[in-house]
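Q: Hydrolase, please. Structure only.
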Amino acid sequence: MEPIVPPLVPPFELVGEGPHRVVAIHGWFSDRAAFAAMLPHIDRRAFTYALPDLRGYGEARDIRGEYTTGEAGRDLLALADHLGWQRFSLLGHSMGGAVAQRVVAAAPDRVGRLVGVAPVPASGMPMEGEQWELFTSAAERPESRRAIIDYTTGGRHPAAWLDMMVRHSLEHSDAKAFRAWLDSWALEDFHEDILGSRVPVRVVVGAQDPAVTAELMRQTWLRWYPRAELVELPGAGHYPADESPLELVRAVEDFIAADA
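A: Structure for Hydrolase:
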């Protein structure tokens, strides 16, 4: 079946001028600024990062679409074509980890390496009862967004940081798109499309994240990707780019730089 909305080149920025090309995909709560705390520490001579805004976020906040991981995967391939990148690596945070796997499923020969950071499995993350109600209410209720961020980072961060994260999320996402994205990343199961993929994968999780845990990665990502490995950052929860940026840059760039 043809997609309802054709692919587009999403708004993006390029950082660095190195030969290792990386598409960095943000998660549910942020636009491309999700990686802002990492950028001062990246190796700009070795890497070029393309940081897009998915539909409904940042500069793409008013761009309509299906708001699905599959649609986003097609958009990112359109971005790679626009940049002339026949081969590239992927860095995906949370929901962006599911989007990255859609790219792998659609064009495995174009993906050098994949790094998932607190990444959603290709089987989704179905929720029930009060947990589902909390997540669905986050589209309209700032206090729900705050509760989710606080819980997934271990309940240990200052109130000012939580408030900043919520404020940025509200200002840089469209509420209807935000809600629609949830149904895609949480409920869709496409793991058979990536099962046995030979793309080298590194999954990075924060030890303080009670939701996307090392054990969940062992039960999903590490079972489905024969060339997958796991890294756990002791000082991070669900947002390693903010909580442990230096450690995350090292985990990402050491792995991708090994691609010949």
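A: Brief note, in case it's useful. Residues 92 and 98 are 8 Å apart (CA to CA).
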